[in-house]
Design a protein that fits this description.
The protein is α/β, with parallel strands linked by helices. The chain has two domains: about 230 residues, 3-Layer(aba) Sandwich (Rossmann fold); about 100 residues, no CATH class. The protein is about 40% helix and about 25% strand. It is built from 14 helices and 16 strands. The chain has a nine-stranded mixed β-sheet with strand order 4-3-2-1-5-8-9-10-13, sandwiched between helices. Strand 8, helix 6 and strand 9 form a beta-alpha-beta unit. Helix 13 packs across helix 14. The radius of gyration is 24 Å and the shape is globular. The N terminus is likely disordered.
Length: about 375
Amino acid sequence: MKRKYILLLTLFLIVLNSCSDKDHLKEIRPVRTVFVYMVASDLENDLRGNIEDMIAVATPENLNGGNLVVFYSKNKEEAELFEIKEGMNGVVTRHHIRDYENKSAISPLVMREVLNEVVSLYPADSYGMILSSHASGWLPANFKSMLRSFGEENQKNMELDELASALPDHFFDFLLFDACSMGAIECVYELRNKAEYIISSPSEILSPGFPYRKVLPILFQNTPDMNQVADEFYNFYSTYRYHYGNMSVVKTEPLDELAGIVRMIVSTAGGEEATHDLPFSDLQILSYFSSPTHLYDFGDVIKRLATDEQYSHFQTSLDNVVTEKRYTERIFFAVVGDRPVEIYSGLSVYPLQKELTELNTWYRQLDWYKAVYDNSYLEMKR
């Protein structure tokens, strides 16, 4: 009888230990899921090339056990969600998840819907997001000329505030913009609560986009070296047949401190009207639009408004925000060709211009304007 009880106890402990091991295994999750959101428009060939580059390096080792999931929207009527991973035959390829029909990729509701689905299907300890399409920074979509904001679909676009509404707060390790002109202080400030780091260019990005064969493995490291991502971007374009490529890495946590310093500088210089008399023809342009405005180098603008002491404080704060900035000797503008880069702080800015009353009205909706110019905004925050 005693032997029977010992045997039963032994079996019970084995079963208990087995259950405990299974529970432990259930708790183990991949380090990271990286979600790629592509809106093709007329970039279809280039984006498909990017996907092929991802497939070329998305080995289990390079993905570090993580998940690489892509939403590819060819147009409003046709989109696909798929995973890039190694198959049963040891070959890395696309694995279809589902198709989407009549879903606008530039709708914040659709973006949030797809993101929620990805998070549900691919839980992980952390998340990163790559956004790939046309863009024009904070500038409002379809505001005269060629402006696009983020994304382009059937000649319609997603506004910056709509993009911010689609992304959950304090969720991503990083947002990487494979899209032109998203490295604006207005953009990174609007998205400051979305990710720890934002990798973007204040200028145009040539159609090949990021060198994903080099960049993708970095994004799956336990602790990704974001500065290395900017370095690899620069290394690629500094030897590419067209030597144009500016890139910056922004750490979002110190952005509020930077906004406070800029607010003090602008206030001392005369408030909202302080930028009206800037020598615009002498400022470093980082994004050139035929209308209604260009986007200028952030540091160049502030230096012309600040005292020497104020600018020193600004530069110290900016160095905490922009952890890496890389630029080629010349910059490409689709409208006018290339121009030299003489000043590069890593971010662009729109200085308010007296004659652009309609654009100024739209600008006053942005968080950056409120933090720097609007007294009532600060009172509300208190």
